[in-house]
Design brief:
Layout: H1 15-22, E1 28-30, E2 55-59, H2 69-72, E3 80-82, E4 87-94, E5 97-106, H3 117-123, E6 127-131, H4 134-140, E7 146-150, E8 158-162, H5 173-177, E9 183-184, H6 189-196, E10 205-206, H7 214-218, E11 223-227, H8 231-237, E12 247-250, E13 263-266, H9 270-293, H10 296-309, H11 317-329, H12 347-363
Keywords: Signal
Protein name: ABC-type nitrate/sulfonate/bicarbonate transport system substrate-binding protein
Organism: Pseudonocardia hierapolitana
């Protein structure tokens, strides 16, 4: 199984390649023959016709997976799959009704030459909303500014993982790192964060991770990046050469405080899309809650898309089910702790993110100046009545 490459790891290819990857054409595969959803009440909060583009285009940052369930759950039963462009399009269905517009969900990663989502959004104006990690938004703020409008995953599931047999009795990243183990990642943000806190030494940093299990299987003394919503299941159940549990801890425990993949709009299109966002953002808030309440149908679509796209990405029903449970049970998806509202951004946390990652990116030469935290998000369109139930 190939996993996403990690924070801010991108390979810039020509714009023509990106646009061709996002464009139409190619074989289309239809969805199952199921009854159409009833139409939303005309002029009501779920009627997007007239307020939003005829096709709401949602751009993800990686291959289809359950962490993106909130986007894929909006795709209605009349969907078609474009196996060339690697996209799925159908009626945008929210809370069981047809909103009067279509939705197209596009994957990222190798499908778009590993371009960051802000770059894609500035190359292709048809993209309505994109999934933009907070650190990615900081990096792009000078030339490709985006404004996050809803957080759909509250805490990052990014982890470092280790072999419990090689590091017997150890339960934290700090303990394993103190042994001098190599920290294998695909990007340099996490190592810089941990080194700045004195948790690892510069000599432990290894950014050669390629998304495969080969290194971890052959050298189980290392710490390796992963996601709590995937790798623990995959390594135990789907990698025959391993076939046992891994130890892991979320990097959020060490200051990796980013909002993971909040939906964002281009900053220069905020005014233009305001009428749409007033209705669409509450739908996006609720779509994550609705997905996790009944992930099965959307997970089946995600697995179908992976099989149809044939990109070399492997994703099974088992890991999709595990991911949906982990998102809830491990607290990665929850109400905003500060306000109790689902999807709302905490201003103090956003300032902490910029104060933490801005200087790191500046020291690495990625940015020349640190953006104002308030420019990276807005709670204007959030419906404060939308909250997850339970503790």
């Amino acid at each position: 199984m190939i996993r996403r490459s990690g924070p801010l790891a991108a390979t810039a290819l020509a714009a023509a390649l990106v646009l061709s990857a996002c464009g139409g054409g190619g074989e289309e595969v239809g969805g199952p023959a199921t009854p159409a959803a009833p139409a939303a009440e005309a002029g009501g909060p779920l009627d997007l016709s007239g307020a939003c583009p005829a096709t709401v285009v949602l751009q993800q940052d990686w291959q289809p997976e359950a962490e993106h369930g909130s986007m894929y759950s909006l795709v209605g039963p009349d969907y078609t799959i474009d196996t060339s462009a690697k996209s799925v399009t159908g009626s945008l269905v929210a809370q069981g009704v047809d909103t009067g517009v279509d939705v197209e969900v596009r994957p990222g990663g190798p499908n778009v030459g590993f371009q960051p989502v802000p770059a894609l959004m500035y190359l292709d104006e048809s993209i309505t909303l994109g999934a933009v990690n907070s650190d990615t938004a900081i990096a792009a703020a000078a030339d490709q500014p985006t404004v996050a409008v809803a957080s759909q995953m509250t805490v990052s599931p990014q982890i470092l993982m280790w072999d419990p047999e090689s590091h017997a009795g150890m339960t934290t990243i700090r303990e394993v790192a103190a042994t001098g183990a190599a920290v294998v990642t695909s990007g340099d943000i996490v190592p810089a964060l941990l080194a700045g806190k004195g948790i690892i030494q510069p000599g432990q940093i290894d950014t050669s991770y390629e998304g495969t299990p080969a290194r971890f299987v052959s050298d189980p003394t290392i710490l390796q990046q992963g996601f709590a919503t995937a790798e623990p299941y995959v390594y135990q159940n789907e990698i025959a050469e391993w076939g046992r549990p891994v130890g892991y801890e979320p990097l959020a425990n060490y200051g990796y405080s980013i909002y993971p993949e909040p939906v964002a709009v281009r900053a220069d299109r905020l005014e233009e899309l305001r009428p749409c966002l007033q209705k669409l953002v509450p739908i996006m808030q609720r779509s994550q809650i609705d997905y996790l309440a009944n992930p099965g149908p959307t997970n089946r679509l995600i697995v179908e898309l992976v099989e149809a796209y044939q990109t070399g990405w492997s994703y099974t029903a088992g890991v999709a089910e595990f991911s949906a449970k982990a998102q809830l049970e491990q607290g990665f998806v929850k109400n905003d702790p500060a306000s109790g509202v689902f999807g709302q951004f905490d201003p103090a946390r956003m300032q902490e993110i910029v104060s933490t990652f801005g200087p790191i990116l500046q020291a690495q030469g990625t940015i020349t100046s640190v953006p104002d935290a308030a420019s990276l998000y807005t709670n204007e369109f959030i419906d404060p009545s939308i909250k997850m139930e339970g503790p």
